[in-house]
Design a protein that fits this description.
Elements: H1 3-25, H2 28-48, H3 52-81
């Protein structure tokens, strides 16, 4: 994998992970638009990069970015709703 492929994979998986996380959190009419954007972005990426290793790393990093996005957003919501913390 070249540096250019690695940077594109990182950027594309970050965007796709955020779109996937947004899809799970947004209400019904808006999440359909986010889903469509995500599908279009994934199709564009898979047409641009045809190597199997790049596609596998894209999927793995998309899942990792999705989990990080949901975790960070959950922590932010918890901290802003409970300013005293757990105690």
């Amino acid at each position: 994998m070249t540096l250019k492929e690695a940077l594109w994979t990182s950027l594309a998986s970050l965007v796709t992970g955020i779109l996937l996380g947004s899809f799970t959190l947004l209400p019904s009419p808006i999440n359909a638009v986010v889903s469509l954007l995500g599908v279009i972005f994934v199709i564009w990426f898979f047409k641009k990069f045809e190597k199997k290793s790049v596609r596998i790393s894209f999927i793995v990093f998309t899942v990792l970015y999705f989990i990080m996005f949901i975790f960070v957003l959950s922590v932010y919501i918890f901290v802003t709703d409970h300013p005293q913390g757990l105690g």
